[in-house]
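Input.
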Amino acid sequence: MALQLCSFRIDRIAEAGKRRQLVWMKRYALLLIAFVAACSNEQEQGQSSKAQADPPTSVVKARIPLAGRVTDAADIIDPGTEAALTGQLAALEQATGHQMVVVTVTSLAGQDVADFTRDLGNAWGIGRRNHDDGVVVLIAPNERQVRIAVARGLEKALPDALCKAIIDAQMLPHFRAGQLQRGIEAGVSVLIQTLMKTTRTRP
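Output.
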């Protein structure tokens, strides 16, 4: 999957993880978050030498196994929200064939977020081979970064400017209110709506 990348730098974030079921409900908390967004593509300059030195695909494969349409490695999404997102993403694929995944990570392992997201999508094989139509929404709370990677087959439907607008209007207000999950849900919802409107549904 060749990805056109739209990235968003989060300047400040404080977050507490969730604990599954009752433990999660007792201890889960999100603090006030402030964000600044910027958009760029995969030709963006300034890649770190450390990211170039490591073999990115093998690193991603070893550290981030695909758990499903939602892979919450950072443990910041509660089970109910994860189930709802999974259902929405499954419905998108059923209707259009497009594949979208949401992933949270505890660490980028020293890689540039653009490389990490691209390599992750490639390693997982997101998107159909002959359509190049995958989307990866990645959240790295510890490095305070979010990335939306859009495969070339969907660049017209989800250009960089639109991805940035979705982040600014739909996700950041929730993030600033300390509602990280709601921000993820809002952003994914608009991405799905956009793809449904711009793609012919399967017969």
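The longest strand covers residues 3-9.
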